[in-house]
Amino acid sequence: MPKRVTAFELMLSARDPKTPAYRWIYGALRTEILEGRLRPGSRLPSSRDLALQYRLSRGTIVTAFEQLKSEGYIEGTIGSGSYVSKVVPEQLLQVGTAGGGDRFGLASEAALHGSVASVSERCATAPAKFVGPRWPFRALSSAGPSP
């Protein structure tokens, strides 16, 4: 079964001569992901296709892909293709809403404070029970504790 070629037009800004080509492509792909033009789960074109399309070496594209993968923007394995991650790093860094939970299902600070307070109140009203000997910690002989 032949592989499908993805139509893909990257928004490339003019490249600064001091910027390495892989950082230039990396920045363009990262921007596309963060601005939502590359949706989570969407397949990226192969490194060979991008290299031909933008007249760069394949190694340059692979290096940009590896940087994006190491930072969590894309995922994939050799031979299966590269895909935009379902959750990008910036989404993990966002603070939750003031309601019961944020869009990732995490409790807000107020909800956490309330649950900690209720646990501490229950601990304060529980009877203190001391289990064990009432002498200072010391190494015991095989015969047991001495009086």
Question: Would you mind describing this structure in some detail?
Answer:
By secondary structure, the chain is mainly α. Among the domains are: 21-90, Winged helix-like DNA-binding domain superfamily/Winged helix DNA-binding domain (Arc Repressor Mutant, subunit A); 93-123, no CATH class. It has helices at 21-34, 47-54, 58-70, 89-92, 109-125, and strands at 74-77, 81-84. The chain has a two-stranded antiparallel ribbon with strand order 1-2.
Q: In terms of per-residue confidence, which ranges show pLDDT below 50 for 5 or more consecutive residues?
A: none
Please tell me how large the radius of gyration is: 28 Å
Proportion of residues in β-strands? 5-15%
Question: Count the strands?
Answer: 2
What is the compact description of this entry?
38% of the residues lie in helices and 5% in strands. It is mainly alpha-helical. Among the domains are: 21-90, Winged helix-like DNA-binding domain superfamily/Winged helix DNA-binding domain (Arc Repressor Mutant, subunit A), CATH 1.10.10; 93-123, no CATH class.
List descriptors.
5 helices, 147 residues, mainly alpha, Arc Repressor Mutant, subunit A, two-stranded antiparallel ribbon
